[in-house]
């Protein structure tokens, strides 16, 4: 029976409140309502279902005796008339009692949800920072197995309220034990198991539908363990930075596709020397270096297809051919020669990354 699942002392003063209403017509006082509120809060903390709590309060009213000892000498008709007159007071007292119980129960539930959300976000924050204090123990609470591989995706362009909606949608589809969502350094961060390949795509889909134009998603590589989560997060954030510096137009940038760039930047002095040696002659071009550099970028982005590059630039194919010939004459490097193309493309990428020309 549902009532048996409610602790016996939870509604200790309930019968007295109902009896007083029946005998005097008095409704529950402030102290009574506070007691009901606390009983509802306690029931929520104990995990008692709200339906069982309300059933217990109603069942107690059903079991309340129709009369009392003081009315024992009265005739049955008089007792019935008195009970009928006070019946509305009992119903009103019961309604207020149940309302206070439910209010206390719901407030306790909301407080528990807020505490859980705060703990969840604090855990994600510590995880992304690499703070190892009790990470494994806390991860188990949220259903994560940190020995597995995880992927971190980050989104830029966060709007107020967007985080909560996206988190609810992801949790509804994949479960709270599979995805963690938090805000870190102005980025919306999603941590998901590497085996849950659909999670990153779903994350990007919700970002696309809820973020303002200019949004972009960076995706780190799958990495194992707590340290791997930190690494994947940093890769995802770095992918956003590289995409901006390279002027990429794609919305979802994967760190795995940009692995060459950290290598290029590892020896900055060597990269600066390459850029200067190869591209400095373009600074002497009539009309400036800009159109020639833009043409090289468009041709490389189009895998050497000059017609596609011309469409991208909004010029004729003949203009692209002419500009490439000028590059060859000025620098001595031709995009048509495989070896020279590699050197020229690396120099162009370096120029974009290092914001060449320098003052």
Q: What would your notes on this structure say?
A:
This protein has 359 residues and is of the alpha+beta class. It folds into 3 domains: 2-112, no CATH class; 147-258, Alpha-Beta Plaits; 262-353, Orthogonal Bundle (Arc Repressor Mutant, subunit A). It contains 14 helices and 6 strands. Strands 1, 2, 3, 4, 5 and 6 form a 6-stranded mixed β-sheet that branches. A hairpin with a 2-residue loop joins strand 2 and strand 3. Helix 2 (30-46) packs across helix 4 (76-129), helix 10 crosses helix 14 and helix 12 crosses helix 13 (317-331). It is elongated. It starts with 13 loop residues before the first helix and ends in a 6-residue tail after the last helix. Mean pLDDT is 84; it is low at 68-75.
Helical proportion, percent range: 55-70%
Rg value: 35 Å
Report the count of strand segments: 6
CATH names the topology of the largest domain as Alpha-Beta Plaits
Protein name: Helix-turn-helix domain-containing protein
InterPro entries: CdaR-like_regulators (IPR051448), CdaR_GGDEF (IPR041522), PucR_C-HTH_dom (IPR025736), PucR_C-HTH_sf (IPR042070)
Pfam families: GGDEF_2, HTH_30
Family: Belongs to the CdaR family.
């Amino acid at each position: 029976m549902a009532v048996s699942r409610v602790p016996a002392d939870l509604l200790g003063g309930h019968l007295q409140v109902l009896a007083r209403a029946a005998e005097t017509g008095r409704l529950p006082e402030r102290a009574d309502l506070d007691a009901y509120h606390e009983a509802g809060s306690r029931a929520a903390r104990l995990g008692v279902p709200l339906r069982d709590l309300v059933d217990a309060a109603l069942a107690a009213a059903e079991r309340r005796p129709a009369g009392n000892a003081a009315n024992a000498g009265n005739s049955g008709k008089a007792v019935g008339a008195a009970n009928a007159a006070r019946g509305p007071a009992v119903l009103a007292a019961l309604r207020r009692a149940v309302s206070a119980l439910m209010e206390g129960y719901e407030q306790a539930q909301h407080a528990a949800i807020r505490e859980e959300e705060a703990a969840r976000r604090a855990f994600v924050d510590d995880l992304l920072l690499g703070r190892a204090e009790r990470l494994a123990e806390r991860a188990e609470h949220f259903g994560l197995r940190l020995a597995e591989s995880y992927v971190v995706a980050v989104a830029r362009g966060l709007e107020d309220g967007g985080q909560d909606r996206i988190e609810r949608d992801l949790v509804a589809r994949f479960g709270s034990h599979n995805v963690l969502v938090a805000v870190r350094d102005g980025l919306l961060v999603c941590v998901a198991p590497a085996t849950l390949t659909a999670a990153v795509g779903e994350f990007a889909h919700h970002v696309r539908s809820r973020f303002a134009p200019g949004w972009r998603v960076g995706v780190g590589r799958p990495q194992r363990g707590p340290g791997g989560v930190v690494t994947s997060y940093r890769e995802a954030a770095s992918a956003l930075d590289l995409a901006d510096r390279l002027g990429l137009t794609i919305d979802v940038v994967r760190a795995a596709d940009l692995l060459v760039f950290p290598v290029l930047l590892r020896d900055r002095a060597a990269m600066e020397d390459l850029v200067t040696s190869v591209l400095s002659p373009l600074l002497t071009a009539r009309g400036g270096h800009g159109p020639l550099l833009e043409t090289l970028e468009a041709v490389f982005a189009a895998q050497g297809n000059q017609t596609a590059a011309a469409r991208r630039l909004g010029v004729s194919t003949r203009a692209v051919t002419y500009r490439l010939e000028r590059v060859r004459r000025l620098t001595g490097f031709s995009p048509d020669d495989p070896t020279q193309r590699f050197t020229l493309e690396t120099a162009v990428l370096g120029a974009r990354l290092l914001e060449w020309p320098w003052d």
